[in-house]
Amino acid sequence: MILLTPELRAQLVANGRDPNADHIPVVKFFNPIGRGMWLANQLEDNGDILFGIADLGFGTPEAGSFSLGELAGLHLPFEMGIERDILFETRTPLSVWRRTARRLGCLRAAERAIWRIEQEG
Length: 121
What we know:
Blueprint: H1 6-16, E1 27-30, E2 37-43, E3 49-55, E4 62-67, H2 68-73, E5 83-84, H3 94-104, H4 107-120
Helix pairs in contact: 3-4
């Protein structure tokens, strides 16, 4: 799977040019056979370093940077790799995702909570 389409890449790079803004996450990556999940809202001009939230499933989601190349290079069992959630959409800024994930101890739980709130309007 292509982890970033040209449109997603362009939005992430544009967000990266204003790193102090509280951008909305643009893309969600996940481990299809594990607990890992990553949200990204910025991409550096080098095309590799993303900024967002990473949750490796240990109960401590962290905001920071991670490598697109490393995500793409992860080889999982059954010849699988990290996937992009093609249905991911949100209207909630990254700071709210970060606070919610830390409070709930899990980015997946934060996703469920934020999804419910966004659906209520």
